[in-house]
Write a structure and sequence with these properties.
The chain is mainly β and 205 residues long. The chain contains three helices and twelve strands. The protein has two domains: 78 residues, Elongation Factor Tu (Ef-tu), domain 3; 83 residues, Elongation Factor Tu (Ef-tu), domain 3 (Beta Barrel). A six-stranded antiparallel beta barrel has the order 1-2-5-4-3-6.
Length: 205
């Protein structure tokens, strides 16, 4: 479990394909030295297991299913990524409960400063996820806990405050870039339960 509050960056050192997927080697910023083999770390919102915590790098094996659901297959040497270690007992929940289970990739439609409304990021969201996107509710984009400022039938818009722009790379995303999406787990559970009981509209795939 994670909070969606980003306090660490990393840099891709290697992305080596193999028969079961891709092995990513990431150099974290100082401050993530307590991570051990077997620990969970969210990389741009994707929960991965550390297989080798070398002195100056973290190594992750990314399986094909994860590659199919995310944009990790396209990561290149030198790319910067958000890193968040898993919560520990007693840690404050400053964002919201994030599982690190990316459901799909969205696409950046707009990203920039609006003179009247501040910095806004708008992302196209797959139709199958829109039932779990609630105005003023929580959503995770690239591992960052955010509040839904506006939604329509096909997209979601969030406001990025200066603190978020400074501590994440969301402000550097360009139109057309893929974005990892995880909807709020509580909302998702309610929607799936209602659907399984036949009390609401079925999911659209």
């Amino acid at each position: 479990m994670f909070t969606g509050v980003i306090r660490h960056f990393g840099e891709i050192l290697a992305a080596d394909p193999h028969s079961a997927g891709v092995r990513l080697t990431v150099r974290p910023e100082p401050g993530l030295s307590s991570v051990r083999a077997g620990d969970s770390v969210a990389l741009d919102g994707v929960c991965l297991t550390v297989v080798d915590p070398a002195p100056e790098a973290l190594v992750f094996d990314v399986v094909q299913q994860t590659l199919d659901l995310t944009s990790l297959a396209g990561r290149k040497v030198g790319d910067r990524v958000h890193l968040e270690p898993a919560m520990r007992v007693g840690d404050p929940v400053d964002g919201h409960h994030v599982q690190g289970h990316v459901e799909a990739c969205g696409t950046v439609l707009q990203n920039g400063d609006d003179a009247a409304r501040g910095w806004r990021l708008r992302v196209a969201v797959p139709e199958s996820l829109m039932a779990c996107v609630v105005p003023q509710g929580s959503i995770t984009l690239h591992g960052v806990s955010l509040t839904v400022a506006h939604r329509d039938e096909t997209s979601v818009e969030v406001a990025l405050i200066p603190e978020t722009l400074e501590r994440t790379h969301l402000g550097q995303l360009r139109v057309g870039d893929p974005v990892h999406i995880e909807t709020d787990v509580l909302c998702r559970t309610v929607v799936q339960t209602v659907r399984s009981l036949g009390l609401g509209p079925s999911a659209t795939n």
